[in-house]
Structures are given as C-alpha cells and as structure tokens.
Amino acid sequence: MDQHTNMAALLAACLGGGPVAGLRRLTGGASLETWIFQHAGETRILRRRAGNAASVLVDSLPLATEAALLLAAASAGVVVPNLIHLCTPEEGLGEAYIMAYVAGETLGRKIVMGADFAEGRNTLAYQCGSALARIHAIAPDSVPSLATLDAAETLSHYQQIHRSIGGARPVLEAAFQYLSARVPAQVTPQLLHGDFRTGNLMIAPDCAPTPGLVAVLDWELSHLGDPAEDIGWLCVNSWRFGAADFVVGGFGHLHDLLPGYQHAGGTPPPLARIRFWHMLGSLKWAVMCEMMFSAFATGADRSMERAAIGRRVSECEADLLVLMEQGL
Amino acid sequence: MTDATSSIMTHPTAAELLEAVMEWLAESQPTRQGRDAYLALVARNALATVLRELQQGPAMVSGSANRLSDLLNMQAEPAELRDMLIEQIRTGKIAANNPALLVHLAAETKARLAIDQPKYKPAP
C-alpha cells in the first residue's frame, strides 16, 4: 500500500468506516501537515504532526490542545471549524485531529485586494474585533494549561532567540532596546489566539450565503497574555499584503475593530498598548523569519521556502523604523 | 548592466545565467500545478533577489561602509563597524531612537529592501 492508501484506510477506521476519497496534502512544512479529503458526503480536514520532526516555531501547542481550543472557541461564539475527531495514538495517524472544511479564502492578497471581497472588507475589522473579544473572554481554566507570556517575557524570549540564531541586525537591536524601555504595566492574563492575522482567517466572498469572517484558524500559538497583543499582531504591516493604508489586516482600521470588540462584551485596550504590541509584533515576525531560516541553515527543514523567508527580515526592519520614528 | 564580477566573468555573466534560468521558469510555468506551481514562483523570486543583489550589492556595501564610518567616526571593515554599532545600541551608548542612528538605519534598510523585496510597501 502506498502512503495515501494507508492513510485513507486509517482515516476511515477512526471515522467509523465508510470510504475516504480524494485525500491530498494541502500545505505543510516539516512539522505540521494539513490534508483534505471526502468522507460520508462531507469535506474534511486533517491536521497532523509529522512523526519525529521538531516544530520550527518552538512555541507551537500539542494538537490535542489545539482541538480543545476549537471546542472552547465554538462554545464562546467564535466562528471556528467544527472538531470532528481527535485522534488517539492507537489509531495510527500520530498526533492529529479531523475537523470540518470551511469554504472561503485565506490568501491575503485576494482578501485585501480582490473585487469579490470588496463589500465584506467594510465589516471585516468589526467582525475581527467581535471574534477577538469572545476569544479573550474564554476562561483560561476551561482549556488545557497554556503558557503565560507578558510583554517583558515576550521581549526577552525573542531577544534570546535572535541572539542565539539570528543575524547581525542593528535595526532589530535598536527595536529590542526601544521596546524594552517602554514595556507597559502588567494586566491580568487573558486567553489569546496568538496568531490572529490575515492568512489565518477564513473569509467568504461577497457572493457567499455568509460573507466575511467564517472561521478563525491556526490556534497553535495560543497562550495567555495581554489582549492588546492579539489586536496589535493583526495590525502588523507584513499581513496587509500591499494594502498598507488599512492598518487592521489590510482591510480595516482600529476605529472599526474596537467597536466590534466592545459590542461583543470586551473592554478595548488603550491605543498605546495596542501600538506597543503592534511594534513588538513586527519584531516578533522578524525573529520568526530568522527561526524559519535557521531551520534551513541547520538542516532541520531544508526547503526552499525556509531559505527564502530569511530575506523577509528587512521588511520588518523597514516597518520597525517607521514605528520608531513616529514614536510609541 | 554591470554586476559584481561581470568585468571579468562574461559570455555569459552571472546575471545573464540567472536571467536565462528565470526566463525558463516563467515560460514553463503553465505546465505546473498546485504546490509545484507555487514553489516555482518562490524559486523565481529567490533568483530575482540574487540578480538584484549582484547588481546592487557592491554599491550597497560601499554605501553602508561610508555611512557607518561617518556615524561611528572611525575606519574599519564594514562588518566590524556594524558589530560595533550593534554593541553600542545594546549597551545604550547610542540611544535606540537617536536621530542620526535612525537616518543611518533607514538608508541601510532602504538599500536592503531594494534587493530583498522592492515591491514591499512599508507602513505609512
């Protein structure tokens, strides 16, 4: 049996029988794979950790935790794919879960530029604000234990990584110093998505029955922290995909997002805190690019994409300089 | 256009070789689908970056060296000057938002971005 036939048989078994068809891999680096397939008339998605590969992003969560977060988010009224099945080791698929397929678009450029999303873009920031408020309201003790990272810890964590694996980059050094001198006061840690940005949001086009935000994906960086972190992260220019004037995700503004946040029961964080986390977000993305390049350089994931992404650090540097010149 | 070694290495120059491979990747793109098509685009972008670096790299390095010498008021190898600058920022000898530092870093970053991602729009 080839790998696909074997996997299809294992999937069918853990879904209680019935044929599995059209199994193919969608994306994935060395650590996390996403597969799509048909079963019992429905399209399903398999998320699966490759056997022995170490995760490139050191902070990513076990898939069982990710599955638990999907359930908690659904109960809190956040749009997420339905969890269909959390795989057990005996089922032979490794660390994995199966979820429903949600139709829509995740490609940033299409979402921020595409004519078929033009109408939806007007309300997308508001919808994101509502979703974030609902995520932040999830009680941390209702989900598996997550790490807590405040601003100072986040800075020192990424500074340490940068100094151990990164390049000699004066701009990043200046950004670390600048932010370290401006760490905001601590707040009660709340549940954060951790990677809430264009690219990880499934958006349905204007012609769909439910246009706009239809699923919040990729919960693998979820942790506890300052709610301003999730909002600031969505403002990082790297996911505006050329629509740089639209601070929120390339499609909206904070004055659209924050009313959505408030309307869903959240207390919007002060703009100064959001701006701090926005700048720290650009710095984090620079270090994450260094981490992904490092996976290539060390041989852990010798793929062309990992090599090429190292050259995205300069985009973060350009954005960091603008933010430092404007001041926090 | 001249590039890093084109005064000696010709017929073809390194840039011409790269252009030939990039043109082949572009011409054969319709034959690829799915992940292969995506990876071929990544490959073309990577080669385009190398081509720009061949062409712009020498001026970028000498510009960087001159700016660093002016900023730190001393002469040394560019990489050595850069490491000294990092050390001064790290120890607070130069404030992270020192205006002269920011002007220097903006010039550096503009030159890097012109090689890495000329179409990237920095935050307004």
Helix/strand order of chain B, N-terminal first: HHHH
Low-confidence stretches of chain A: none
The proportion of residues forming helix of chain B, as a percent range, comes to 55-70%
What structural class should be given to the helix and strand makeup of chain B?
mainly alpha
Whole-number average pLDDT of chain A? 94
General description of the model:
The complex is a heterodimer of chains A (328) and B (124). Chain A contains 11 helices and 9 strands. Chain A has helices at 3-14, 63-75, 108-113, 118-136, 151-165, 170-180, 227-234, 254-263, 271-297, 304-309, 313-326, and strands at 20-28, 32-39, 42-49, 83-86, 96-100, 190-192, 201-204, 212-216, 223-225. In chain A, a hairpin with a 3-residue loop joins β1 and β2. Chain A starts with a helix and ends with a helix. The longest helix of chain B is centred in the middle third of the chain and has 39 residues, at 34-72. The chains are: A alpha+beta (328), B mainly alpha (124). The A-B interface holds A 25, 168-171, 173-175, 177-178, 181, 237, 240, 242, 244-245, 247, 304-305, 307-308, 311-312, 314-315, 317-319, 321-325, 327 and B 35, 39, 42-43, 45-46, 49, 79, 82-83, 85-86, 89-90, 92, 96-97, 101-102, 105-106, 108-110, 112-113, 116-117, 119-124.
